[in-house]
Fold each of these.
Amino acid sequence: MSDADPHLPLPEGDAASPVEPAPAPEPSPAALLPDDLRVPWTWMDVLIFLIFSMGIMVVLEYSMQTVLLTTGRVQMHELSAFVSTNTVYVSVRQFLWFALMLGFLFFTLRPRRPEPFWDTIGWRPPRMGEFSRAKFYPLCFFGGAVLALAIATASSFMAPKQPLPIQQFFLDRQSIYLMAILAVLVAPIVEETVFRGFLYPVFARTLGMSGGIALTGILFGLMHAQQLWGGWAQIALLVLVGVIFTTMRARTASVIPCFLLHLGYNAIQFLGFFFSDAFHKLPLIR
């Protein structure tokens, strides 16, 4: 005889009761981020990059100054003035610094994703809304030119009392040509890759979009502070420019529109100067 009566009701929770479905696992924090912020680098990578960038600049300065002294190109008592005012020296140093920074990013970030390096670091097709690429890209370029004119107008009302350090590179035509090559053909690519491509995603992941935009803009302005030292209003305006560039990066999820803004911003300044009477009155070489 069985111990259990088959006619008795089953207890609650028996197999006859419906089974509750298991709760779905919560998505990871990374999965909640926009695609353009889901990058394979972190604050530690940012710190290592900043240390490398500052360290390699010291190495470049020491190496180039050693070459100048050992070749007799400059005497020791002339060295300090030469390295801070000679446009050829400054341009070569800046170009090498930019190249080494880009190279560092390429060789440290490229192995982390199967996608091409430039896609990984933000040079991807932007969100353009209803605009076609044929309309959106020129609009970004000319928007940068308009921004440059607006900033120049605002700066004219807050002119510094003393000449700015950067003005010493605009005293002869050769120097201006070199500055134009650096500012138009090199700086927009490198600076947008570093600030809007590499730094902004890490800042925005931690601080949110607004905090990331603000911090990136501030650092962008401070990077140029040495050139504008004493022109505090000009530095503040450049921070504003950095904020505008980064806002475009956040809205379009791409570095390309920021690059075009930056390109238009720098190009219009030199283009206007090249067509001015003041430029043609300058000596070719000091």
Note: Residues 37-119+132-281 form one domain.
Amino acid sequence: MNIQALLSEKVSQAMIVAGAPANCEPQVRQSAKVQFGDYQANGMMAVAKKLGMAPRQLAEQVLTHLDLNGIASKVEIAGPGFINIFLDPAFLAEHVQQALASERLGVAKPAKQTVVIDYSAPNVAKEMHVGHLRSTIIGDAAVRTLEFLGHHVIRANHVGDWGTQFGMLIAWLEKQQQENAGEMALADLEGFYRDAKKHYDEDEAFAERARNYVVKLQGGDPYFLDMWRKLVDITMTQNQITYNRLNVTLTRDDVMGESLYNPMLPGIVADLKAQGLAVESEGATVVFP
């Protein structure tokens, strides 16, 4: 039951009997302070002005027609014309019992909507940090709440699984003769990433090889795609262990990596060129601001 809606209907009916127009707004809200009751009807101010009478006078007339028997233990007029409503504890207890007996705890289902929740979003070849965990927990709480309300929720785990770092990681795998990346643990990859980055920054020959590997990877070379998939799979497997430990509802099916957009890029570039937004500059296709 929506108590605010119930009180609004009751007050509105009493206002109409007291002479207010049929479309009057009772403005029933939860009270900001306990001394003003549980709810307060503030609509007398606006309606009284239209009727050419004092708000308190209208409130007094409304009170004579307001039937909250069994709902409120006390109803009083405060200030210039506010109506304070104190709910009856027995009424509240009865409805709490009804809510407890209900599978949905008395929460009505709204009109069903499709809602996308983008959360967690870890990076590949790195352990999740506290920011990822925060997003994961808050996002899953939002998902569960929306599903409880009856909505269709699409979980979007948008992971960082594409970019120049993969050329660097694959090059370092080769250098360390660890091509069988499937046996590596994520903890190894965390240190592995730092070592690869260090060599990338300090060894120009290594950096050049890594950049070449990025080109091969983005060009769809089967060998480099296979190495990339191993790095992604290790990370996703470890992340799923973390999700299960946290009792989070994310699964591998919810992963929407940056690589998801790769097949779409040629069409997007062609469209940008057709509209004259993308141009060739120094061997690259760019969009200038």
Note: The radius of gyration is 31 Å.
Amino acid sequence: MPYNSSGSWEGTLKEGQGDLAFGLIKTQHSVPQDLGGKGIGTNPEELIVSAAASCFLITLAAIFQFKHVSYQRLEVDSTAEFEVTPRGPKMRAIHHQVKVYMDAKGETVEVEKHIKEAEEGCMISAALSGNVLISASGSIIQE
């Protein structure tokens, strides 16, 4: 099943900007300010860490469903580490810090194991494998 994105760009690398459209999202994009660009809209760095975070959450939700783990909600803060190389920015690592909100009586024994499974099972993680270190850790909040 194909997924599509379209985009445009006008101007130089550092002074330029463009538009992106995918699904229901339409946004501007440019080189981030910390890399010398205009910092307008989003950028590839934000898009890839957002894709990784979304994939991780959905994969963890699927694992919980198949393993019959009851939870109220999942939250993730994902951080990507980049460095500037002579060939351009290079992503080195992504770390997902997930919070699993569960009922006070929820079974927590296997949650850490499932977080690791989601880290390894996400299709974005698989696509980046060998190039980017992906890690995940979590905390359980029983309400």
Note: Residues 31 and 37 are 4 Å apart (CA to CA).
